[in-house]
Amino acid sequence: MGRRPILCAECHPSNALGAPGVPGLPSLSKAIHEKHHDAVPDTLAGCYNCHPGPETQCLRDVMSTQYGMDCIDCHGGMEAVADNPDPWLNEPRCDGCHTDPEYAQNNALYRLSTGHGGLYCEACHDSTHAVAASSQPRDGIKFLELQGHVGTLDTCTVCHAVQPVGPGPHGLWAPQTANLINYNPTRGVPEGGNLQSLRLSDDDRLQVHTVSMGGGVAQGVVVDVAAISPLLTADEMNVTLEWSASVAGTKAILSLFNYNQNAWVAVGQWPLGQNDHVVMTADIANPARYIRSSDGLVKARIMSLGSTQTFPQGYSIKVDQIEIHLMPAQ
Question: Among 279, 294, 310, 329, which has the minimal tally of Cβ within 10 Å of its Cβ?
C-alpha cells in the first residue's frame, strides 16, 4: 500500500458507508467478525469492545433494563453476524419476536418503519437501542415534556385534540387517567402547595415536613390522595409521580388501597434524593381491586420514613404531578 491511512471500505464493501468495495472481497462486517470470532466472546462486554466502545455502552433500552436481553439475543454471536449476507440493511426485526400482525414492520429496518398515522415507530418508542423506557434519564426528557411521564408515548392527546375512542396503535386501546379530587397529609406538617400542585408538572410542589412516628425513633410523612377512575374495570394500572426530599438518603413507598382486602398494599418503593425524580410503577395487574365499584374511587398513599437519629430535625418531601393510568379491558 502506497499510502496511510487506508479506509477499510475502499476494498471491503460497507453498506454503512455506501461503499461498493472491490468485487469478490467479503464485506467489511464479515471480514472483521469472521477474523475475530475466536478472540472476542459472544457477550455484551465482547460487543462493547467495538460497538461503540467500552465507555459509551449504548444499550439502554427497555429490553435490556427490564427483560435482561443484550446484543446477542437479537443479533446473534460473532459467527452469526459474520454470516449476515447484507449487514446494516438486514438487521433484527421487532416482528421477529412480536409476531402479532399488529406489530408487523413495513420496512426491513425498525428505524425506517412507520405505523399509526404514518408516524415512524421511533416517534412513540424512541430509537434503536434506546427503546423506551430507557435506563438513561435524558432519553426520557422528551416524553416527560410531551406527556408528563417517561416511557413509550402513550398519551393520545399529545397529538389528538380530543381523546380518540376505540383502538389505536397496534390495536391497543388508549389508557385512561383518573381525575385527582382530594389529598390529605394524614401525617406531617404542610409547608406549601395544594391539589393543583399534584395535577401539574411545574415548580409548585406539595411540600410536607415529617413528624415523629413509631415512638420517636422515626420521622415520617403520610399523604393520602384520592382520584376518580373513568373505568370500573381495567386490564392494567400504573402510577407515575415526581418527588424529591430536602435531604438525601431516605426513601418513599407508594401504596394503593385494596378494596377486596380493605387494606393498603405497597406497589412501589424508591430512594428519595434532593433532585426531582420521576418514578413509575410496573404495570399492576387486576386493577379492579383498587377501584371502588360504586363510584370508581382510587386511593393512593405516599409514605416516607427516616430514622430520627439520622434526621434529628426531620425533613421535607416534595411531590408533583401524580397520574394514575388505567388500560381499558380489551
Answer: 294
